[in-house]
Amino acid sequence: MDRQQTLQRIADEAAAGNLSFPTNATVALRIRQLLDDPECHIDEAARLVQTEPVLAARVVAIANSVVFNRSGREISDVRTAVARLGFRTVRTLATGLVTRQLAGASADPAHRALTERLWEHTAHVAALAHVLARRVTRQDPDAAMFAGIVHEVGGFYLLSRIDDPAGLFAESPDDWAGEWEARLGAAVLAALGVPEAVVRGIAAIWDGYLAFPPASFGDTLVLADHLAPIESPFRHRGDAHREAAAGAIESHVGEDSLSAIVAESAEEVDSLVGALRF
C-alpha cells in the first residue's frame, strides 16, 4: 500500500469514528472527562489526577512555573497545585497527556525520535500561544495554550497507526500538510470533544495563512506555530516559512516590537515548555 492509500485509509476510518486509542491515553482521557463534571470537588479532582503519575507530576510542575507561581512560593502536593491552576488548566494538561500518549510507546528509535520532536514542537507552540494571546492578540491565553497542545493531535494519532512513519514521509514530508492533516486532525479533535471555536483556530494553522498584524485566535496559533524554534517533523516550510516568521518578528504591536515581546517572555516560554515535557 503506497503513502497516499495509507493516509486515505487512516483518514477514512477516523472520519467514520473508528478511532483506536492506546490504553494509557484512554485513562488520561477518562480523567479529563471526569474533570468536566461541574460537581467534581477539588479533593476528588486531586485524587483523579494522582491516579496518573505523569499527569500528577506535570500539574505540580506547571503550578510552580513562572507563569502560575508569581509569588515564588513552591508547592509540592497535587491538591494545592490543582487549586492554584484551576480545573480548566488541569483539564488542558490532561488533554495534553492524552495527545502525547496517542503515539504509544514504540521500540523503534526512529519512531520515538519523531514522537519526541513532535511533542517538543507542540510544547513550544502551546507556550508561545499562551504568551502571544496575553501580550499581543488579547485572546484567552488559557484557550490558546489548550489549542497549542492539541493542534498536532492528528500527527500523534498517525504515529500510533503506522509502523514506519519515518519511511512513510522520507521522500515527501509535505504530503501530510494540508488535506490529510486537516481531515485526520478534525476527526481526532471531534473524538476528544474539543470545542468548535478551538478547532476553527487550529484550522488556521492547517490553512497556513498568517495575518499582519495578528489579532484573532487563529492568528495567535499560526504565529506561535511559525515562531516555534522546533518545526513539526511532518511539515517542512522552507524559505517561505522562515521569511514569514522573520516578517512577524519584526512587526510592531502597539509600542513594542514583536521580537521584543518574544525576548521579554523567553523565561515564561521556557518555564511552560519545561512543565509540558510529558
What is this entry, summarized?
The chain has helices at 3-15, 23-35, 42-50, 53-63, 78-85, 87-101, 109-137, 141-150, 153-161, 165-168, 179-191, 196-207, 217-227, 238-250, 258-264, 266-275; strands at 252-253, 256-257. The chain is built from 16 helices and two strands.
Describe this structure in words.
By secondary structure, this protein is an all-alpha fold. It has two domains: 1-19 and 106-278, no CATH class; 23-101, no CATH class. Helix content is 67%, strand content 1%. It contains 16 helices and two strands. A two-stranded antiparallel sheet has the order 1-2. The two termini are 33 Å apart. The model has no long low-confidence stretch (mean pLDDT 83).
How many domains, as an integer? 2
Rg result: 18 Å
Share in β-strands: under 5%
Q: Which structural class do you get from the secondary structure elements?
A: mainly alpha
Order of helices and strands: HHHHHHHHHHHHHHEEHH
Helix-strand blueprint:
Layout: H1 3-15, H2 23-35, H3 42-50, H4 53-63, H5 78-85, H6 87-101, H7 109-137, H8 141-150, H9 153-161, H10 165-168, H11 179-191, H12 196-207, H13 217-227, H14 238-250, E1 252-253, E2 256-257, H15 258-264, H16 266-275
Antiparallel strand pairs: 1-2
Helix pairs in contact: 1-11, 2-6, 3-5, 4-5, 4-6, 4-16, 6-8, 7-8, 7-13, 7-16, 8-12, 9-11, 12-13
Task: Give the key terms.
278 residues; mainly alpha; 2 domains; two-stranded antiparallel ribbon; 2 strands; 67% helix
